[in-house]
Design brief:
The structure holds two protein chains of two kinds. By secondary structure, chain A is an alpha+beta fold. Chain A has helices at residues 7-11, 19-44; strands at 53-57, 63-65, 68-77, 83-94, 97-108, 112-120, 130-137. In chain A, a hairpin with a 2-residue loop joins strand 2 (63-65) and strand 3 (68-77). Chain B is mostly helical. The chains are: A alpha+beta, B mainly alpha. At the A-B interface, helix 1 and helix 2 of A face helix 1, helix 2, helix 3, helix 4 and helix 5 of B.
Chain lengths: 139, 305
């Protein structure tokens, strides 16, 4: 895709830089410098080896669909690092027997929240629901 | 065809107008040309899930290294051929910083449009994604634009001017040929640009998370990019042999976008994820989402093919 620009193309940029070009450069420079400063400050902070996640069943937001109960679970990454393949295990008791279901979140960003949903045949408020993260990967 | 007139539409890349002492008009045109280059090179990567995720998981040292590498590569390209074609190392440094700035802003806007970044997201995640994407976009600003700017048809016009003015029938014939060529290159560019995006999961992921207002914003952004690439950037003059309503920039922008949407629909139908075409709502959302890069390809096709 090599192409030598013609003289016509060069003509308009001959001469000193004008104010508008300096404005574009100034805005870009400020943006780049702000990013550099932010990254330098962050790189001086300790980089967490392990992350903290919290999984909370939102029982006050349970809905019912076609005879089943849909329960949202809020998954929160409280650390300053994103994780991959975060596996969530939800445990509950159905008719006296312990049951569980697993959910995997591909990516969960730093200090961010995702909501995942689970289907239950019985009212989750009577199932002694608990949820926790059981594994994750970090790049 | 309503009227007869041989001539050129759109702007040229000639010297700045005397009524523009601050260079605002010329700079605006340069920036639009830069966005054109960035969109053409960067749009497929802006629709790539791995780019989002890798950007998100990079640590601050890696991000700093990435930013330094982006600046260095842009500097090398600008030493050879800057987007304003200026020469000199200091000038190349200034152009590189500007290219990276434009790349970051453009990447941020497109990532926001497709719902990949949002207010409230962790700043580190947003920055990682924007930085990763701006690597490609800024190179597009620096390189692609320098390569397409020379595709002016002014020489064709000069050759035509030397000859006897053609009659109306000849102008009509030329305009028909031009319309067919434009339509064909739009379809070819749109297919070429989006055929590797049509089958991907990203289209479905983006379409699934966007509401009607965001889809409407994508339609407006697609139309705006079409217009910028075709007319506002001044990268190529558009020959008009027979002037008519259909030849107006607004009409041609809408026609190009419509053709691109049709290409996006076809690609989804034949190559897309099964869920993309399962129901009218999904199909419409997926078509609009894929329509953004397809419109860039369709408009770029008219520049390059």
């Amino acid at each position: 895709m090599s192409h030598a620009p013609g003289e016509d193309d060069k003509a308009h940029s001959a001469g000193p830089r004008r104010i508008a070009e300096w404005i574009s450069f100034g805005v870009s420079l400020m943006l780049v410098l702000a990013v550099v400063v932010h990254l330098v400050v962050r790189s001086l902070e300790p980089w967490p080896e392990a992350i903290q996640t919290h999984v909370t069943p939102l029982l006050d937001r349970v809905t019912r669909q076609e005879g089943r109960f849909v329960v949202p679970f809020e998954v929160r990454n409280g650390s300053a690092r994103a994780v991959r393949d975060l596996q969530i295990r939800i445990r509950y008791e159905a008719e006296g027997r312990p049951e569980s279901m697993d959910v995997v979140i591909d990516y969960l960003g730093q200090a961010s929240v995702q909501v995942v949903y689970g289907y239950f045949r019985e009212d989750p408020r009577s199932l002694s629901l608990t949820a926790e993260s059981v594994s994750y990967r970090m790049d | 065809m309503l009227a007869t007139m041989a001539g050129l539409r759109a702007s040229s890349t000639g010297p700045p107008a005397k009524g523009d002492p601050l260079g605002l008009a010329q700079e605006g045109k340069d920036l639009l040309a830069a966005i054109t280059g960035g969109a053409i090179v960067g749009m497929p990567l802006l629709y790539t899930m791995e780019m989002w995720f890798h950007g998100m998981t990079l640590g601050p040292e890696h991000q700093l290294g990435l930013l330094a590498a982006i600046l260095l590569v842009n500097l090398l390209f600008n030493v050879v051929s800057g987007f304003r074609h200026e020469s000199g190392f200091a000038s190349a440094v200034l152009e590189s910083v500007t290219a990276v700035g434009i790349g970051m802003l453009f990447s941020g806007v497109i990532l926001w449009l497709i719902g990949e970044i949002a207010p409230g997201d962790a700043f580190g995640d947003v920055l990682g994604k924007v930085l990763f994407e701006s690597a490609a976009v800024s190179l597009g600003v620096s390189v692609a634009n320098a390569n397409v700017r020379g595709k002016s048809r002014r020489r064709e016009q000069q050759e035509q001017v030397k000859q006897q003015p053609p009659g109306r029938a000849e102008l009509e014939r030329r305009q028909t040929q031009q319309d067919i060529r434009d339509f064909s290159s739009t379809i070819a560019g749109a297919v070429l640009f989006s055929i590797n995006l049509g089958p991907t999961e990203e289209v479905l992921v983006i379409a699934a998370r966007l509401g009607p207002e965001q889809l409407l914003l994508i339609v407006l952004a697609s139309l705006a990019l079409c217009y910028v690439i075709l007319f506002a950037s001044g990268i190529r003059d558009q020959p008009v042999h027979v002037r008519s309503v259909v030849q107006s920039p607004a009409a041609e922008t809408i026609l190009t976008y419509s053709a691109s949407l049709a290409v996006a629909l076809g690609l989804l139908w034949f190559l897309g994820e099964r869920e993309s075409v399962g129901g009218f709502g999904n199909l419409l959302a997926s078509t609009v989402v894929l329509g953004l890069p397809t419109a860039v390809g369709g408009a770029a096709g008219r520049l390059m093919l």
